[in-house]
From TrEMBL:
Pfam families: VPS13_N (PF12624). The keyword Transport applies. Keywords: Transport. It comes from Clastoptera arizonana (Arizona spittle bug). Belongs to the VPS13 family. GO terms for biological process: protein retention in Golgi apparatus; protein targeting to vacuole. The lineage of its organism: Eukaryota, Metazoa, Ecdysozoa, Arthropoda, Hexapoda. This is Chorein N-terminal domain-containing protein. InterPro entries: VPS13, VPS13_N. The keyword Transmembrane does not apply. Residues 7-171 form the Chorein N-terminal domain.
Amino acid sequence: WKPTTSIQGASAVYQMLKVESLSVYCNPSVHELLGSTPGLANAAPYTWRNDMKRGLETFSINNEEFDFMLKPILAKLKVIVNKSNEARVPKLLVDFVLQDAATQLSRQQYLGLIELVESFHRINMNRPYREFHPGVKVSDNAVKWWKYALKGVLKQRVEHYTWQHVQKHRQ
């Protein structure tokens, strides 16, 4: 299993996928990076990238250790695809090796994930009404927000009786 280029017309293709230090972490109590450091909001994009690379090397950001949900794993997948037409020869051989996969979920991580799912649910529920969104703060223009609410209710109640909706429903 040495890296080489494939030979044209070979009867077998060898592929290998190696995953090193794959991990998932979620630090629900970590302070925001933007705003916590003066001038970081105006920093160049590569600064943020360098901070993330440094964090992956030390498993910490701003001296706060990563709270892993999936600890770093090492996995190797070897695949042999046989192109010959012989029935006795298997077409696909797969060898998968996974070393020490450990998962854990703290209460704070669980609650953070529940909040994330709920926020996606709210976004999805609000999606049909985004076209009516006024784009201003409620305190700045209450009239526009009342019109937004009215249009949302009318769309929900009147849409079922439009000719387009009836035609779509009949199909």
